[in-house]
Design brief:
197 residues; mainly alpha; globular
Length: 197
């Protein structure tokens, strides 16, 4: 598990990268030890993902989404946790297999480290929206609008992070970002079906 100092330093670096500030990468530990520690960021993500999942469940059970079957909250949260775990390792595994042919092997470790820490920053940015929705201050429709805007910002964020870490051409960076988002959607949907949701 990363130390508190590393959590603070890496989160600040991920925030600086979101803002496209020069030198942001210097705040990440891109050693092999830092690479493996970055996977434990998922433990910091779990409460934030639970918050987002509770908000999503509220939309589904409140009638804000049409034609949805009755929802088991425990099953729903479990499915989301499993999807997160699968997504957490899927893209790094796939990229490990294709990094050589793509010519981006030298940046692989830095890419994964930045990907993991940037996931925490993205979750922290959207957490207030989910919290406001859960307390009834933010309607579901408005939440979706804000999340759409956030997603567009995050796609750009992932693109910048991918280009900086992998040092790859725009088309390769774009392909990696598309892989990230599509795999996340597919894994989430597949997990939901597996759990009968």
């Amino acid at each position: 598990m990363p130390s508190l100092a590393e959590i603070q330093r890496s989160t600040a670096a991920a925030w600086n990268l979101l803002l496209n500030r020069p030198g942001a990468l210097a705040g990440f530990d891109t050693s092999f030890a830092g690479f493996w520690r970055s996977f434990s960021v998922i433990l910091l993500l779990l409460p934030l993902v639970a918050l987002a999942s509770l908000s999503e469940a509220r939309v589904l059970v409140s009638g804000e989404a049409a034609d949805v079957a009755p929802l088991s909250l425990e099953l729903f949260l479990t499915a989301r946790a499993v999807a997160l775990g699968l997504d957490w390792v899927f893209v790094p595994l796939v990229l490990a297999l294709i990094a050589g042919p793509l010519g981006v092997g030298a940046g692989y470790v830095a890419y994964v480290v930045v990907r993991n820490w940037s996931a925490l920053v993205m979750a922290l940015v959207t957490a207030p929206l989910f919290a406001l929705h859960l307390i009834g201050f933010l309607p579901g429709g408005l939440l979706m609008l804000f999340l759409l805007v956030a997603t567009l910002v995050f796609v750009r964020y992932r693109y910048i992070a991918t280009r900086v870490t992998l040092g790859c051409p725009p088309v390769v960076a774009g392909g990696v970002v598309v892989l990230e988002y599509l795999s996340g959607i597919v894994l989430s949907e597949a997990t939901a079906r597996l759990f009968g949701l």
